[in-house]
Amino acid sequence: MNPSDARNASGLANRVLFAALLVSLTVSARADNPRFDDKLSFSIGGMDHRGDGSIASTRDDLPLDRLTFADLGLGDDTGIGWARFVWQFARAWQFSLTYSSFDAAGFNTAIDPGNFDDTDWEVGAALTSSLELELFIVDLSWDFLTTEKSHLGLGVGLHAADFDFDLLVEVFGLAGGASGGDLIPVGREEASVLAPLPNLSLGGGYRLAENVYFDAGLGWLSLSYDRYEGNLFSARGAVEWRPWNNVGFGVAYQQVDIDVEVEGSRSVERYDLEFYGPILFISIGF
Asked: How do residues 88-116 score in pLDDT, each as one tens digit?
């Protein structure tokens, strides 16, 4: 089994277990309101996330040459920002907007020939790269099941992933007739795309104690439309402690899997990425 298939199998198992845990916690419960008594809440924090995956771009129907994080020397671990806004505009209805990002930079020496877009290279080329990803998740959900301590609902919304990738390819020049010397640029490629994908979601929460609340959600949809084809899966679980009525602290865990192909008039770009890790946050609710 290749690494991509193993990652997909592991991701599927995690999704099934996450959904089963969410449903079992929600339907087995029986305090006054499953959520904190907020109409508006805002959370902000930091993530210690890891990443893995591959990126590819080609032109004129040439085969895609996938560049993995290892090929590029991209760091697989980074601290980044996270924020979430929730509007509880009715007892059973909720609107939420979640933002997270991932930034990585890398350098590596090519051990195989390769290409990205219009630039080709041979073994020994120096590859300098950077990747920036911003992810926006918009969700409108309705609770179809509510008990005194728990709730479970379905939602529809949008995942929007904004990618920016930069790759500089260089080779060593000649110094005094021998190999070595300064690096000489061979080519520089940039890829930028905003991929909006509709999603379906399942979410719920459980009041663990008077001032402790657990909530979780997952969203997924596979779709092909216009220039875009692919799927995006996200899962999140969080525990929040409210020592005061309007201020709380929490810890969460998030996983995001993105597999998107974008077709242009002469080019094809492919992003197959996975990000996961813990989140520490502070929340304010009114």
From this structure: 999 899 999 999 888 888 999 999 998 89
Long-range contacts of 247-250 (CB under 8 A, 24+ apart): 247/282, 247/283, 247/284, 247/285, 248/36, 248/282, 248/283, 248/284, 248/285, 249/281, 249/282, 249/283, 250/43, 250/45, 250/280, 250/281, 250/282, 250/283
Please tell me the distance from the alpha carbon of residue 233 to that of residue 273, in angstroms, as a whole number: 11
Q: Which residues, at least 6 apart from 19, have a Cβ–Cβ distance to it below 8 Å?
A: 202, 218
Distance CA 124, CA 169 (A): 10
Q: What are the phi and psi torsion angles at 20 (to 5°)? A: -65, -40
Give yes or no for a contact between 47 and 254, defined as CB atoms under 8 angstroms apart: yes
| 3-104+135-160+195-285 CATH choice from 3.40.50.1100, 1.10.645.10, 2.40.128.90, 2.60.120.330 | 2.40.128.90
- Is a pLDDT exceeding 70 seen at residue 147? yes
Q: How sure is the predictor about 208, in pLDDT bands with cuts at 50, 70 and 90?
A: very high
Domain limits of the chain?
A: 3-104+135-160+195-285
Residue 206 has pLDDT above 90, yes or no: yes
Instruction: Give dist(CA 242, CA 207) in Å, integer.
Output: 12
